[in-house]
Design brief:
Helices cover 32% and strands 22% of the residues. It is built from 10 helices and 13 strands. The chain has 3 domains: 3-104 and 204-224, D-Maltodextrin-Binding Protein, domain 2 (3-Layer(aba) Sandwich), CATH 3.40.190.10; 110-190, D-Maltodextrin-Binding Protein, domain 2; 233-304, 2-Layer Sandwich (Double Stranded RNA Binding Domain), CATH 3.30.160.40. β11 (250-256) and β12 form a beta hairpin. It has helices spanning 16-33, 48-51, 57-60, 68-75, 134-143, 156-164, 175-180, 214-221, 226-242, 288-303; strands at residues 8-12, 40-44, 81-85, 97-102, 110-114, 128-130, 148-150, 170-174, 189-190, 205-210, 250-256, 261-269, 276-284. With 316 residues, the chain is of the alpha/beta class. The structure holds ligand PBG. This is Porphobilinogen deaminase. InterPro entries: HemC, Porphobilin_deaminase_cofac_BS, Porphobilin_deaminase_N, Porphobilinogen_deaminase_C, Porphobilinogen_deaminase_C_sf. It is an enzyme of class 2 (transferase).
Length: 316
């Protein structure tokens, strides 16, 4: 076997956060298996989400935007494992691929980053908040209908630069990403996950690989995290029931207690924050998928079919 055939090729996007995540996965695999950096190659793959920066993701086509090109590289063997933010993963995984591990979750919460204001409550009447996330925009408007939201696309560094340049008075980012880049000092406040629940999957890195490649399954099993896997199954099941509209703001957070009980909080909102439907569910962690599905069906029933009228399809 040629020397290069024994190297695991890790595919990732090229943003500083994506590279930090790929390095973290590599470091954990090295530690778990007594391997060395020479056993891995990190392949940077550009995705549509990295290239299209002038439109909201919800208009370009939603979730698959950060993963499609990476999944193509997996399928044709250019890479052996892909490192993703679970939050960016669609619920449908292409035939021939699967999620082979969820790593231990970082902080799930969102951070508030203000220029002058330190908290949402501090923002003056009519202030402007930059965000590309429909969920964050809707949650903000629910709390503060007076706020204006503007689109902030690009990687974390780009968004912080736009904020510093005065394009907005504040922005919101996942603390997990800031922590992974040792940039948590930018946060001026941390939002309550009850009042401001995260996106399904936020804060958890996942690894995707080929169904046929059991070698990768064996490799990554050592760094998979059981509790995170359960919570992600519930949150992704919730998302799947609600799928169909990438223009619906959706929030979800499953928490696993030490006794194996899972509690689940899900929410769907109108983009302008004027209508909110919330659900709380609980059950055994082994029934994670059913808990998420039950919550999804219950929140759909609460919202009623009219809820999705008017923003179900991307605008032409
Ligand atoms: N597409 C953006 C994205 N995808 C994952 C994260 C944060 C890291 C995470 O949730 O694991 C971010 C940036 C942000 O929301 O601040």
């Amino acid at each position: 076997m040629a020397e290069t055939d024994r190297i695991f090729k890790i595919g990732t996007r090229g943003s500083p956060l994506a590279l930090a995540q790929a390095s973290e996965v590599r470091a954990r695999l090295i530690a778990a298996h007594g391997l060395s950096e020479a056993d891995f190659a990190i392949e940077v793959i550009s995705t549509a989400g990295d290239r299209i920066l002038d439109r909201p993701l919800s208009e370009v086509g939603g979730k698959g935007l950060f993963t499609k090109e990476i999944e193509a590289a997996l399928l044709d063997g250019r890479i052996d494992l892909a490192v993703h933010s679970s939050k960016d993963m669609a619920t449908a995984i292409p035939d021939g691929l699967h999620i082979s591990a969820f790593l231990e979750r970082e902080d799930v919460r969102d951070a508030f980053i203000g220029r002058d204001a330190r908290t949402i409550a501090d923002l003056p009447e009519g202030a402007t908040v930059g965000s590309a996330s429909l969920r964050r925009q809707a949650l903000l408007k629910r709390m503060r209908p007076d706020l204006r939201t503007i689109m902030f696309r690009g990687n974390v560094q780009t968004r912080l630069r736009k904020l510093a340049e005065g394009h907005a008075d504040a922005t919101l980012l996942a603390i997990a990403g800031l922590n992974r880049m040792e940039m948590a000092h930018h946060a001026t406040d941390i939002l309550s996950p009850e009042e401001f629940p995260p996106a399904p999957g936020q804060g958890a890195i996942c690894i995707e690989s080929r169904d046929a490649d059991t070698r990768v399954d064996e490799l990554v099993a050592a760094i998979a995290h059981r509790e995170t896997t359960h919570t992600l199954h519930a949150e992704r099941a919730f998302l799947k029931v609600l799928d169909g509209s990438c223009r619906t703001p959706i929030a979800a957070r499953a928490v696993l207690a030490h006794d194996g009980r899972m509690s689940f909080h899900g929410m769907i909102l109108r983009p302008d924050g004027t209508e909110v439907h919330e659900i709380h569910e609980a059950g055994d962690a082994d029934a994670a998928t059913e808990i998420g599905e039950r919550a999804g069906r219950a929140v759909l029933a609460k919202a009623g079919p009219r809820f999705f009228d008017g923003w179900g399809e991307p605008q032409p």
